[in-house]
Design goal:
It comes from Trematosphaeria pertusa. It is found in: Membrane. GO terms for molecular function: transmembrane transporter activity. The structure is a single chain. This protein has one domain: Amino acid/polyamine transporter I, CATH 1.20.1740. Strands 1-2 form a two-stranded antiparallel ribbon. By secondary structure, the chain is mostly helical.
Amino acid sequence: MASNDEIDLKATTNLDEVEQGSGAGEKAVVGGTSQLSGTRRHVHSLERYINLSSVGFFGVIVLASWESFAVTFQFALANGGPASMFYGSILAGLGCCAVGFSLAELASIDPTVGAQYRWSANLAPSANRFWGLLQGWITTAAWCFACAGPPSILANMITSLAIFNNKTYEPQRWHTSLIMIATMVLAFVFNLRFRNLLDAFEITGGVLHFVLFVVIIAVIAALNPRSSSDFVFKTLTSDVSGWSNPGVSWGLGLLTVTFSVSGYDSVLHMSDEVKKVRTRVPQSIIIACTVNAIMLFVFVLVLLFYLGPLDDTVISAPLPLIYVLYGATGSKAATNTLIALISFIIFFALFNVFASVSRLVWVFAKDNGLPFSDILAYVHPTLKLPVNALLLLCAVVTALSLIYIASATAFNALISLQALALHVSYFFPIMFMLLRKLRGPPPPYGPFKLGPFGIPLNVFALCYLVYVVLWMPFPQILPVTKDNMNYAGPIFGAVVVGALGDWFISGRKRFQMPVTRYE
C-alpha cells in the first residue's frame, strides 16, 4: 500500500492519443479528471494550437543569449575579464546543452506544464508529494521574479540611450520604474491576444535574432580595431572588483555568461498548447540550447577581439555596447537603430516569458500548490488563457518596480533569485532521473532518448549545476556593504523556508499533485 507521500495514481492523459489527434481547434485533455482522497476535481483546459515553427522559435527567443550578454557584459569585465568571458562561454555552452538535453529527455517522457515539480514528484524515490510542492515553490518563485528581468533590461537600454543622446539627462529611479511598468503592461496586453500574435511574434523575433547577430558582428569586426590574442585568451581581471584571487574572479565572471543561457525550461510550461508535444517540445529545448550556445560563443569571441579601446567611458557606462557600436560606426543614428532592434528582441522575450510563467502559475494553482488556487487556476472561457495568473505577474512586476524607487539594492536582491533558483530546480529532476537509470528500471522513454550518452550527460549536467550554484551567492564586489551585498542566497533560503512552512502548515494536505508511478 502506498504511503501518504507516495500516491499510486494512474495518469489519465494518454499523450500518444493526444498527439495523433491534436488538430488546431481541438481541446487537449489537461490532466483529465483525477480522483484523490475520494473527491473529484474539476480541471480547466487549454487548447493545443502551437505549431512547429512557433514552438521552435519560442525557446530560442526566451534565451536570447547573445543579446542578453551584449547588454550585461560590463559585469564580466570587472570580474574575470576577457579570459573569464571566453572560456566561460565554452563551459556555459556545454553545461547548458547537457542540462537542456537531460530536460528534453524528461520532456519526451512526460511533457507537462509543471515540468520540474511534476518530474520531481514522479521520480523521487520517496516523499513524492513533498518534493513536488518544494520544487513547485522554487520554480514558480524563480520565474515570477524573472518576469521583472526583461523590463529592467529594457529600462536600462532606454535610459542609456537617453543619456547617450542627451548628455544633460540624469535618469531618476522613478523614470526606470515607469519604463518597467510600461513595458510590462504592453506585454500583458499583447498576451491577451496571444493566439493571434504568436506566429507573427515568434517568426519576427526569430528572424531578427539571427539577422541582427550577423549585422552587429559584421559591424564590430569590420570597423573596430583588433585586439591581440593575449588580450582575449590570457587577460584575467582580478584587481578591479576587490577580489584578488584569480580563481574567484574567474568564477564570478562566469556568472554573466551563465545567466545568458539559463531559462531553457520556458517552453516546457507551454506544453499543454503544443501540438505533437512529445516530439516538438524536446526539439525546441535542444534547438534553443545548441543555437544560443553557439551564437553566444561566436559573439563573445568577436566582441573580445574587436571591443575597441576600454576607456573610462566604456567601463563605467550602464550599457557599454552603445559605445562599442558608436566607436565602430561613428554614427549616433546607426547606434540608436542597432540598440533599438536589440530592445525589440528583449521585448519579444518578455512576451514569451509572460506566456510561459502564467501557465506555470496556472498549473501549480490547479494542483492546489498556491494560496488562492481557485482564483489563479481560472481559465478565461473565451480567450482560453489563465488571465488571473497573468494579472498576478503584472502585480509582481509592478511591486518590484516600485521597490526599485525605494531601493535599487532590494530590487536587485529579489530578481537575483532567478538564476540561482532555476539552476536548483534543474538539479533535482535530473538527479532523480539519474538514480532511476542507475537503480532501474527507468520510466518508459518517449520519442527522444539520450541512449548510452544519457548517464554521462546527466552526471556532467549535475556537476555543472553544482559548480555554478556555488558561485551565485558570492558578492560581486569587495568590501561588502549593504548596497553591493549579493542577496541571492538569503532570498533563495527564504523561499525554501516558506515552502517548508507551507508544507507543514497545510501543503501536505492541500497539495493534490497526482503522482504517476512508472512500472
